[in-house]
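Q: Given only this backbone (262 positions), what sequence would you predict?
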């Protein structure tokens, strides 16, 4: 008990001294001190959030393309080895309840695959089939995203072909790629969806694009002009008279499109 009292007597002057020191500060000094404290708290929160996000899986799409697309027959390697976690829809039936656990292939060729995005599974059966469209065009080979120098030029033409078959009129088609710091998977995927009607004026500021094969090149030039370096989003829409148009943004272009089921 005496030791406890001794400890209290020893530490009390330190606390009083700290209070006296803070009270003796000028108003400006107090303000600066509080600003530093707020900054430190915000930084700690940011680091904590980053660490939490770092634990989320960011490699779900490439295994789907590698192991689920070709595994359409009984006894194929990917399915039997448990490498495919989202089998093609015909293996799970057409019930809405298994939509989120399956892969629906819209189109494919030797280089790319287009699949239904699971966001479409949120739509009810009463939703008109053509009102909400959200797909993903994915390379068969490993490509991380917009920052990858191996990003394939042909993916935009492939994605537009898939979109035009499902979305009419073509003036409503929107293709976009998220920046590296605002995506959920580290395999390149071009979102296939519709542009919002109230975003038409905003997307009209995009640069005209004669051919989709030049999308990455033009987007890169625009990003350099804006000082975005290698981290930016890309949005491609239909131009009324000159083919297409491309818009780059430091943030995700999803705010210009119907990204979720209405």
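A: Predicted residues:
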């Amino acid at each position: 008990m005496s030791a406890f009292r001794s400890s209290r007597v020893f530490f009390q002057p330190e606390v009083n001294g700290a209070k006296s020191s803070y009270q003796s500060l000028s108003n400006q000094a107090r303000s600066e001190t509080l600003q530093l404290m707020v900054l430190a708290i915000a930084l700690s929160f940011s680091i904590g959030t980053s660490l939490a996000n770092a634990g989320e899986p960011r490699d779900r799409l490439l295994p789907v393309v590698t192991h689920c697309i070709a595994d359409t027959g009984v006894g194929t390697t990917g399915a039997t080895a448990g490498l495919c976690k989202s089998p093609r829809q015909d293996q799970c039936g057409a019930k809405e309840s298994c939509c989120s656990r399956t892969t629906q292939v819209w189109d494919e060729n030797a280089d790319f695959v287009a699949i239904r995005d699971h966001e479409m599974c949120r739509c009810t059966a009463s939703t008109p089939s053509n009102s909400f469209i959200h797909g993903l065009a994915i390379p068969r080979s490993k490509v991380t995203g917009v920052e990858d120098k191996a990003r394939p030029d042909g993916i935009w033409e492939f994605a537009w072909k898939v979109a035009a078959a499902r979305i009419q009129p073509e003036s409503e088609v929107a293709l976009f790629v998220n920046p590296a710091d605002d995506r959920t998977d580290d395999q390149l995927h071009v979102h296939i969806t519709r542009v919002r009607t109230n975003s038409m004026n905003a997307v009209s500021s995009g640069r005209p694009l004669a051919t989709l094969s030049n999308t990455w090149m033009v987007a890169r030039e625009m990003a350099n002009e804006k000082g975005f370096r290698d981290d930016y989003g890309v949005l491609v829409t239909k131009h009324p008279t000159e083919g297409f148009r491309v818009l780059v943004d430091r943030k995700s272009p999803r705010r210009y499109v119907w990204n979720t089921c209405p």
